[in-house]
Amino acid sequence: MPYVPHTEEDVREMLAAIGVRTLDDLFTSIPKDFRRSGLLDLPPSQTETEVMRDVTDLASWNRNADGKPCFLGGGMYRHLIPAAVDHLQSRSDFVTPYTPYQPEVSQGTLRWLYEYQTMIAELTGLDVSNACMWEGPTAFVEGLRMAASVVNRKKLVVSRGVHPHTRQALRTITKYLEFEIVEIPLGADGRTDMAKLRAAVDDRTAAVGIQSPNFLGVIEDGAAACEIAHGKGALAVGSFYAISLALLASPGELGFDIATGEGQPLGNYLGYGGPSFGFFATKKEFLRSMPARIVGKTVDREGKRGFVLTMTTREQHIRREKATSNICTSNTLMALRGVIYLSMLGPQGLKEVAEQCVEKAHATAERIFASKGCAPAVSGPFFHEFTVKFEQPIEKVRDRLARREILGGIELRRWYPEYSNSLLFAVTEANTKAECDMLVDAAGGIF
Amino acid sequence: MTTTLEKPVDRPLPYFDDRLIYEKSRIGARAWRVPKNDVKSQPAASYLSGVALRKTPPVLPEVSELEVIRHYTNLSRLNYAISTTFYPLGSCTMKYNPVMNEVAVMLPGFREIHPLQDDNSVQGALALAKRVMDYLAEVTGLPGVTLHPCSGAQGELTALLVCKAYFEDRGENRHLVLIPDSAHGTNPASCAIAGLKPVPVKTGPDGLVDVDDFKSKITPDVACAMITNPNTLGLFESRIHEVAEALHKNGSFLYMDGANFNAIVGVARPGDFGVDMMHINLHKTFTQPHGGGGPGAGPICVCAALEPYLPVPRVVEDKDGYRLEEDAPKSIGRMRGYGMNFGVMVRSYAYMRRLGAEGTRRIAEFAVLNANYLRVKVGKHYAVPYDRICMHEFVASSKKQREKGVHTIDIAKRLIDYGYHPPTVYFPLVVNEAIMIEPTETESKDTLDRFVDAMAKIAQEAETNPELLLEAPVTTPVRRLDEVKAVKEPDLKFNCCVWEPT
Prior knowledge:
The complex is a heterodimer. Chain A is built from 14 helices and 13 strands. In chain A, about 35% of the residues lie in helices and about 15% in strands.
């Protein structure tokens, strides 16, 4: 049988040592009525070769972005990944341990997590980072929940520019926490309407939540959102695109109290949306309200530097129903990819990636906008993702894109009925000139 | 008379350069470069006029590629892992993670697909997901499956929200959840978020839920009960069907925490003994590697009555193929950004296909065989409070050794010197000085015998040189660490942040 190493002799000796006759005798505590004598209705066992053929076949049914023009974004972006990331992350002594409960034999994991926390604190410009979360949207939801518990208020004011899925998850997860959630519309430039935000934030508001660049790709006025929040004693919680943090004002510089984001762009594949990881950073005064695991530096009994999981009294296995969060197993291995990615790129490399995203996206967008019947759906400043409103029926445009095997863009009317006939495109450093040309041709309607 | 702790395993310390990657950083060093921009464009700054730009650049390591390779390769060697050592961490099911799964998940057709692609361009991914769902429905006996939750804890929360939505749909406002005192901490933590109040239920002297106490706490306000079965003592709750019946009579549901599903998979189906909903930790039973703390995935399986309330998106198969369904009127909604931890599904699928019907049953049979063999052998040297046939794990105790001043933590740390990852310690809370051992089915008799030898030697050391055991481990790059200092003087990032705790 696959992955069970016992010989028949082993089984005999072990049963004898236990003092039972058969394997079935080990299951007598399960009432007879519920114990199955036969096998379940499942396919037969297969060899490695057969299973590899099967999964390779399934994989081949998917149209994938490898070597194809992909301009899909919406929080998950296709970036170049250095070979070192796959190579190092796949080392089995990173892949197969669990949570570093025993620090003496987990210094590898603990040390890179400490490096990770440093990198995230640096990127966000905030004091402290946790040791990663599941993914971006739930990290943002946890940020709002944390803010509500820190300021002890129940009203959340959230921009409609926040990814629609994130807002949906927020409503599902917090349904029974008696929050009042107010959504603020976007202005004609695609940015959060700051006048309406100001009017909505009051003495009952726990947090203002925005995303920048927002779902339409538009860079928000984060400083204004923070100023409005702080004016009423609320916290500012943001969701950020990791690569953009190399160029744009950091959440810390803008005044955010909690910065979260999707970790996928940092060295992780698209992978059909998961697993990726979420990052989460805050100011030091809120450290003890932070969800998820935290790694800290300490010394061993000989005074040597070492690292441990720390401040566990915040967590569910100690605090149970009073815990800051129910998160337990996180997405650590995906965060390791982020750490290796950032080490490979360094500050200069990351800046160059960010710059190239901006340059390619803007140059491509300008060419599309110069085409007949194409205009931006919103006028605000963007980073690497932009909207195009078409005069032609959207089906025709999508058909042209599909015929060139271009993945993207995202149809906005699914979540924003007001932006009819519009598509959202993301361009990254991974897109070649030839791919950008194809997009311009297809979107612009040149056959 | 020995004066220092011997080093039982002749294992040279792994190469250990204490410096962090930041401490290897040299201004101007580079490892990897993005290809030159070949698209005709202006410099980035000119496109970002009027936007607030970063004043202080982030401090990131500046190192060569070789330095990165060496640094992380050497860090990895500081870990104990399943691939290098026996890892009997109770309740975590640290079984072998087949390497072919890692090959499968890296196929471009899986790793290079975007979650917002049209359904018709990802039919292979959706078919794979559907097959995982069908497999889970068959092994649990529960027809409604969602692969959506990020982890076991989120699976739990999802199930509680589904349960709550069911009652709301009927105009009922039930708010109590019965939870045995031996439960995992995520259970009450998830209740708190779902607006439910945990009501603790006692564990009886036999280590099982006190059924009378349980029944006495069933009131019209009880939405459900959360039971881990087998429980955290490694015992099957043999009266679970009675509990289920009593709940059902009250219109309440029975939730099973699937953390310990490895013990019964293929042998008994939760749906058959009255469970209405459960989550499955794919990183336990279905061998998604634990990754130093994830990723996992926590699909939930529910009975037909609860199916309409499952989250979206849902994988649906119809005559045109597979699609993701977003609109389901009674659904609780979405719990996360995108559909599922797909990479976890690929690994679990490959594993399920390798096992087939027969291999699936073998998981439970050999997990239980291994656990009982260890229970009997380890029981010769340590107390085993509930010493009868156990399921996939058992809880020992260092009660005997405590008389000599040796505690569970010392035994755990000494196991490290013998080359083993320690078991789960001080859990469950209902056993003093608990040592929770889960060998899993993938370990050979030879490995178990050698582990027993180490446990026996440690018991002997506790007899003859108890004070020396407090020194363990002595073979690791660092010795026992000062956890109090870590809390009192939080230092959570390199270089710049020691402050007074608030």
